[in-house]
Amino acid sequence: MSPSMPDASQSQNPVTYQVVPLDEGHIPALLALFEQSVRQAGPEHYSPEQVERWAQGARHPGLVTQLREHHGWVIEQAPEQAGTQMAEQGTKPITPLGFVTLSQDGHLSLLYVSADHQRQGLGSRLLETAMQAARRLGLRLLTTEASTFSLGLFLRHGFEQTGLETVERGGVSFIRHRLHCRLPS
């Protein structure tokens, strides 16, 4: 488990986040987070038709397969600060704020942060966690296809654009940014 990180924007009562391995219990909440993130953040860069098709991906069985089969991490509010009845009962609340997945061959296929928690460093924390894990796995190259709204995050972490690609989802076309990052030995 990765160490917790305080949210600098909350100076009086800092919120602490923790990154934990993705497990089966997270999956329903991650599907909802995926859809919510796309529907709320997508309209800034995509047409209503594109947002709708992309959000429908939350119901595609391939998404659940990726969550189960790839290495994955979830960032969540630390249980001691979640303030839920579950925490009082001593059980861990599942309140994911974001997630990332990494395949065995070094492909980052999913990196999403709740629309309510974007631009707070959570995406960076998730990406750094995946990059550290990739180095531990002996990977030397990471690849991904980034949306327009996540492109800047990857570029800030040393990814380089290798091209653009057009993909189609249910008759709706999307442009994605193909990226790679060479990891230090």
Automatic annotation (TrEMBL):
Query: Does the record bear Transferase in its keywords?
Result: yes
Q: Which CDD domains match?
A: NAT_SF
Q: Name one GO molecular function term.
A: acyltransferase activity, transferring groups other than amino-acyl groups
SUPFAM superfamilies reported in the protein's UniProt record: Acyl-CoA N-acyltransferases (Nat) (SSF55729)
Occurrences of domain N-acetyltransferase (ranges): 17-182
Which Pfam families is this protein grouped with? Acetyltransf_10 (PF13673)
Keywords in alphabetical order:
Transferase
Fetch the PANTHER family from UniProt. Answer: ACETYLTRANSFERASE (PTHR43451:SF1), ACETYLTRANSFERASE (GNAT) FAMILY PROTEIN (PTHR43451)
Name of protein: GNAT family N-acetyltransferase
